Amino acid sequence: MSVKSCVVTVVLYYLFTFDKVYLLTTSEGINTDPFVIDVSWNSHDYDLHTIPTLQVVSNPLLARQFSPIYKKIFANLKQLNADYARYAVWFPYPKLAVAELDPPSGLAQCGNVGQDFFINLSCERNGGVISKIDFASYGTSTGACGQMKQGQCHAANSTTVVERMCLGKPKCSVPAFVDLFGDPCYGTVKRLLIQVQCDPPQNNTYYNFTYLDTMLEDFLDATDGHSRIISFCTQPTWLFKQDTPHIYPDNASLVDWEYPVGTELVDDTMQALGDYYGRLLAWYTRGGFIDEYGRKHTSNYYYNWDYTEIFNEVEAEHHMTVEYYTRAYDAVVQGIRRHTNNYAMKYVGLALAFHQFDWFRYFLNQSNHAPDIPLDMISYHFYASGNSRTNPLDWEPFFSQLDTFTLQVEQIEEIRKILSPNTRTTIDELGVILTDDNTPGAPQFPPIYWNAAAALYAYAWAKISRLRIDVVGHSQLVGYPELPDLQLQPQFPSVALLNWTTGEGSAKYWTSKLLIDTVDIDNDQAVITRTTDTSGQNIFCQAFVGINGRRWVLIINKRYANVDVFLPGATGGRMQIVNEASGFGPATEVTLTLSTVTLSPFSVAIVHMPTASAN
Questions:
Q1: Could you tell me the pTM of the whole model?
Q2: Cβ atoms of 62 and 215 closer than 8 Å
Q3: Does residue 13 have a pLDDT over 90?
Q4: What is the 3-state secondary structure (H, E, C) of 265-333?
Q5: 447: closest CA among 26, 23, 16, 12?
Q6: What is the CATH number of the domain that holds 176?
Q7: Within 13 Å and on the Cβ side, how many CA atoms surround 546?
Q8: How many angstroms separate the CA atoms of 365 and 152, rounded?
Q9: Rounded-to-integer distance, Cα 296 and Cα 315, Å
Q10: How far, in Å, CA of 87 to CA of 212, rounded?
Q11: Do 252 and 378 fall within a single domain?
Q12: pLDDT digits (tens, 9 = 90+) for 473-516
């Protein structure tokens, strides 16, 4: 095939925020003659086994308390009808991810907040009152409950103010306001720390499900009737050894990238870790739990889901070794069973960011686990990357990066088949992360990016399906750049499937829906498919046959250029295509009057072939 000289056309691409315009260039086409797709419809290639799905990550745009579009987001999730959607309750927003942010403190009750926030104290559980103020300081005091120490900056009236507001009362709310305490050190960031006791005495824990509940409710409602994977990714930092307690943001929508502190658990038996997860699962699946002091906490939740994933990217987030993680995995399974008596729950292990084969060899060896610990499923992740946020030519290498990853998948599969052949696999984070994605003010990518990332996911699903991986999850439903009106810092905008302003689906979303609606893993089989694009650099295609004469072909344009393809026998068939023209709408559907099709840059098309009698 000869390569046609590029005729450069200037195209205006508007960002979906509609506040900037980019001038980009695109070539008119790369091939004079169409690439021919040659399908051997009667030649079996492989059975289709791989489920396309997505990842949903907790963040403020999903939360009822912060998001103006959360209803639209979950409506779109429901519309996908996805099986094995992964819900990741992840650390950057600790109050959205951790149910017990502060450790149990025995008879002392404590609070620690930043300036302009409130400490809420209560002794009313047993009809009691606040009987003693052990510590109060507005300034730069530090320390955990029972170990609070006054700093160099301290408002001398701190104890007097707190006694006046709290002493002898069942409960009180103390604001960390300069107007209340005065300013003991002008220009210095200040905090309010208080420790009190109750009469009669009460043991104190700090469980708070305010934000976790609403997002999980909405996720489970939107995916009702489907298999789900729930990943409570983040462990409370106080479970880990650290020199000083980590101070998490008082503002629930403020990001905290430093939250996963510590590499070694305080309790080396890991029972406390297992108990945390056991109580967490009991809250959502058994109507409540018994806390560290024997007190019943009632939720009235009796949810069911198929898989619980244990942690996320631990080789990065807590720098665990595979040996340490394997012990932690076992402890969490045992803790969940201990608190829920649920032995039917299935588990997903690893969730690795990197693909170190030694991790798979160790974890998948049953002899490295405690007795009766299931190895139901493993997971790992892949993200393509690019050096430019605005140049579409820089996104063509996404596909070769995926090819390299596919070779790693093959090697991991060899390990799994030898050590634990009944263990399933989900690649539950797969997508693109562009450079400087979480940098405030980073250049916004043009709309054609959605098509490039969508094409990468479709290509990944198809390539990985040949390896019979069980599930491939598109990452992720919601991300966003800096959103000043909502006071939100960037959260991986390039991974989003939805428009963060309106909640509408991007090309990534509609490509996922196209695959989910089309793929029939119970009946479809891949057949031998070849093309005259022998290098494979321009297009990808794979044909499938199903029941009742169903035949369909997935075609992907891997280039930032128009590509012509010829699919013999396609005339009279139906094509669904996600491309620039489809924008934030569903795949465009057309009846083919010719068997030659022009695919615009990074298009994803499915051609439903006419029945054999129609040819």
A1: 0.93
A2: yes
A3: no
A4: ECCCCCHHHHHHHHHHHHHHHCCEEECCCCCEEECCCCCCCCEEECCCCHHHHCCCCHHHHHHHHHHHH
A5: 16
A6: 2.60.120.740
A7: 16
A8: 54
A9: 35
A10: 12
A11: yes
A12: 999 999 999 999 999 999 999 999 999 999 999 999 999 999 99
